[in-house]
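Form 7-S
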Amino acid sequence: MKIRSRVLTKLAARVACTAFRLLYRTVKIEYRQAVPGTDAFRPTPEKYLYCIWHDALLGPVFADKHVCMAGLVSQHQDGSYLADAMEMVGVLPVRGSSKRGGAQALRQMMEAVENHHIMITPDGPRGPRNVIKDGIVFLASKTGRAIVPTAFSYERCWTFKGSWTDLFIPKPGTKAWFIAGAPFRVPPDLDRDGIEAYRVQLQARLDAITAEAASLAKGLPAEITQPARKAA
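Output:
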């Protein structure tokens, strides 16, 4: 059943936000970086575009306190819950998608990028799962911001099946890894073919970081990143 009332939507978001914040307080997180100064939850020398797959989105939203972070959220009704929750944890939501309001959302993001990092799920809002769309490459080309591919994995978690993707929710007390790959830079003013070429490269980078996160969750060694810190 869809909740149409904004009052009920905000109430549902507040309840979910409180529950997830309490849950993530029990999770033991290790932060890893390929390049120092790319930790999304700490001051950085420059502002980045962070991308993470839609199924791992809860981690970066609820794991820690945010520093000047904005996020692209679908204009679909379901996006209202996430937008409200993001506001409650200090993330500036920008509503839009590749299907509805995408151009407007990109313009708003370009205005916000001067003072905010931007978090994007490049396979959202309707998939296909774990396939990058070209919007984040276009945004990087227009703003000059580097893209940091990121991944979040858990030693133990629940997997909830959705219509086009899963959603990973950590089990209480589990270990987790939040890793950031090397910044991926895109030339300015790319044409369509150029955007596609860099999209393919970014896909490979994000796939590699995601595979490393999965390896860490299985207790295997990592090669791309190094430990940066553990959750306080």
